[in-house]
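Appendix B, example 12.
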Amino acid sequence: MSTFTIFLALIVVVAFLLIVVIMVQNPKGGGLSSSFGGGGTQQLGGVKKTTDFLDKSTWTLATLLLVLILASNVAISSGNETVDSKALDPDATTQPLPATPLPTTNNNADTTTAKDSAQ
């Protein structure tokens, strides 16, 4: 398993967690804190604490996602594997295609021979 594959798996997990945290939030302050309902929320940490936690976790996951993306870019460029694509290989030489002349056909000659043979 290459380093890039590990970074890719971590990026997918962090992106999924970031989506979940953002979807749980409510722009008006309801979100997860209002789903517990009533006085029980005050015992769990309060509405303000839940909003702070979701806000901090959003920024933390977004920062972690950015760092993982940049680190995966470094992992790609420092790989010692061979390049399979000629487009990515700077040492590859391209050879021009040989110029082949197109066959010329005389449309009048073809139609007259077809008419002559049909008669």
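The chain has five helices and no strands. The radius of gyration is 32 Å.
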